[in-house]
Amino acid sequence: MIHLDSVKGFESRESPETMPVAKSNFLHYVAATIFVGLIIELTAYLAIQFILFPREPAFFFRSPSVSAPEFDRYVTVRDSLLGWPAKKTDMNGAEVIESRPIPAYSTTKNECVSLYGDSFTYGDEVEHAEAWSNVLSSRLNCRVGNYGIGGYGTDQAYLRFDKNVHDSAKVVILGIFPENVLRNVNRYRYLLDARTVFSLKPRFVLENDRLKLVEMPAWNREEFVLATQNLDKVFEHETFLPDSEYGPVSLSFPYTWKAVKLLLSERARSAMLGHTSWEVFYRDDHPTQALRITSEIADLFMKTGRSRGKTSLVLIYPTARSFKQFKETGTVITRPLIENLERRRIPYLDLHEGFGARVEKQEFCDLLTQPATCAGHFNAKGNVMVSDIVYEYLVKSNVLEARSIGVSAS
């Protein structure tokens, strides 16, 4: 027989005394979890803001600030086809595409060679006389026109050549810096460098197995500001949209998740592993088709040159990392591009081999404008080396008349 007193005793032992303890433990657990979460979030915030962002700003995105005066100035100088630089016209209003000054041959006519490409073709960070286009002019005894523009993709370089119908050179060279493979699948350069706010550009896409030009938009200021705040809604065919598979990570809460996304990013992960951020884009099977598009543009450059009676050449520049790998392994990161050029019978000159025959991997940094960090463009010495290698190729291939390169016809 069960007594009522014993039942009451059992109930009193289970609820009144133990419930406050359980509730207190649960609250402590919740508070500890929140505290740890805040510590992790704060750590992620500090790491991104003070370590990762200053070191690799291109891997992060924040909407650019656009003032009315800045945008008004941009509108007056933008090129509606190429993006930049500003269009120039002659006295009759006809567009003029200007070469970089060539002190060795200051007359702007009768060029024997013309160059198209980005800042490595232009020769950034050196004087006009030190640029490899001017050095090559002196070696060839004829003017080498330099139409390279800083920040250009291979797409813009080709379009600039296509527009330059007054280019009289018999030899045209398309310079390809390895990173161009990224620019060729990009429509807004700010997404790649986090610096150049007014950097809308055209790009090519593949449609029915052929190149199709996607022109840059002609927005007013309100449309531009709205676009930079809603990039995914207005930028079709943009590979590097913020928080996408290949794009930068937005600088916003929660920072822990942003740090995780950065680690999962293909470009960032490649850089952290000591590779170049563009290396994976040289895969034949890459979803962006960056390699195929770059190869098609090179092919279009050659065909356009041929239709104008010109001999075309693709010039491939090395980077510090790609050259280091070449010296250590004998392989070139840009080999897939070279193979595509060979299949299409497009003449090319890979500077990795020319530089490799002249310098060791540790000496390559001494050819750059920032040797301490092994960064920047080629300095005066580096420009001379580019000129020497190109000169030797032109002489050996006999693509210029003998009198043009200062050698006897006999």
Overview of the molecule:
The chain contains 17 helices and 13 strands. Helix 6 packs parallel to helix 13 (290-307). The protein has two domains: 4-55; 59-405, SGNH hydrolase (Rossmann fold), CATH 3.40.50.1110. It has a five-stranded parallel sheet. The model is unreliable at 406-410 (pLDDT under 50). It has 410 residues and is α/β, with parallel strands linked by helices. The protein has helices at 4-14, 18-55, 68-77, 119-122, 132-140, 154-163, 180-183, 190-193, 221-229, 231-234, 255-264, 266-272, 290-307, 320-329, 335-343, 351-356, 380-397, and strands at 60-61, 88-89, 95-96, 111-116, 143-146, 171-176, 203-207, 210-214, 249-250, 311-316, 348-350, 368-370, 375-378. Helix content is 44%, strand content 12%.
Key words describing this protein structure:
410 residues, 2 domains, two-stranded parallel sheet, Rossmann fold, alpha/beta, single chain, 17 helices
- Our measurement of the CA-to-CA distance between the termini, rounded to an integer number of angstroms, reads 130 Å
Helix residue percentage: 40-55%
Q: Largest beta sheet: what is the strand line-up?
A: 5-4-6-10-11
Radius of gyration: 29 Å
Counting DSSP E segments of at least 2 residues, the number of strands comes to 13
The fourth-level CATH homologous superfamily of the largest domain is: SGNH hydrolase
CATH C-level of the largest domain: Alpha Beta
CATH topology of the largest domain: Rossmann fold
> What is the typical, i.e. mean, pLDDT?
89
Q: Give me the strand/helix succession.
A: HHEHEEEHHEHEHHEEHHEHHHEHHEHEEH
What structural category arises from helix and sheet content? Answer: alpha/beta
